[in-house]
Amino acid sequence: METGSSRIEHRGVPPLERLVVDASRVALLVVIAAFGAAALLGRTPSLDIQMLIYLVGMVAINLPHGGYEHFTNLRRRGLPFGARYVALYLAFVAGFIAFFLLAPVLALGLAFATAVAKGGHGDLRVMDAQVGSDHLEYRWQRFLAALVRGGAVMIVPLVFWTETFVGFSDYMLALFDPALSVPLASGPDVAITALGGLFALGVVAHLGSGLLIGGASRAWLLDVFETSLLVVFFAVVPVVVAIGLYFPLWYSLRQSARSAAVNRQLEHRDDGLPVGLAWAALVVGALATATVAAVLWVVVPNPLGGLPLLPGLVAFYTIFICIVALPHVVVGEWLDVGRGIWYVP
Questions:
Q1: Which residue spans traverse the membrane (predicted)?
Q2: How far apart are CA 324 and CA 322, in angstroms?
């Protein structure tokens, strides 16, 4: 048995962090209401506008937060550990780029699985720290919770926005070979219906087991609300906008709140890096990230996939994010048994 108690919450979540978590819920509700109303009025924004929203959300807001997660994870760990961490991260980046060049379809599938893992496991740790996870007493429940929370990010839009989802997946594959397409492109109905059905069963199993084991606790009720909110968000909001806004408005907001709450518990410790070195580390990280993007631009056969500028940039940037997301999760959390980017004391 593995208890998923909300350890920081038991000490009292500070009001500011609680407000940030509430803000993530309100943000998704506002976006749902806006796009739901637009759909009813027949005024859904054009695909070009949706892609601009995606780029603003993912580039201007979410990308800097990803670097900050690694910075806060490493700042107290010392140089020997930090050097190994960075080396391993870069090795995974290089390996994933090579995988995309050799087997783009399989690599894209791994990238989608990584998005599920990032959204699901990251959210699970926020539940541990602030929302409550006392109803998730067993390891298999926690795995199912992460699968459902993360699955909403990929599976729900695939079911409700199949044409756009498959189309943009093909755009991403076109960077490597214009003749490639995702396997679902030729006959998606049966596979997508089955996948959607399995996801629905997963939601029922996750919430049902939480009720049976933990009862109708506050943590379970919040889980029901947040899980339902995510499903509705990805079902109602067009997939390009939904993914572009999910990470800054949900993932990054909630992780920032978790990080702030954790830092309050650690504030008696030395920060590990003077202000000057901390600033330098952030600059070096930003330059390294830009270098990865530049290398990808050089080695990819068709950086814009033969597409017009805007969809080409969206496709290229999404592949770039996929490549840095894999080590973000694997190195930043799963291989870092001492702390990890989603650390909860």
A1: 23-42, 49-68, 88-117, 143-162, 190-216, 228-249, 277-300, 307-330
A2: 6
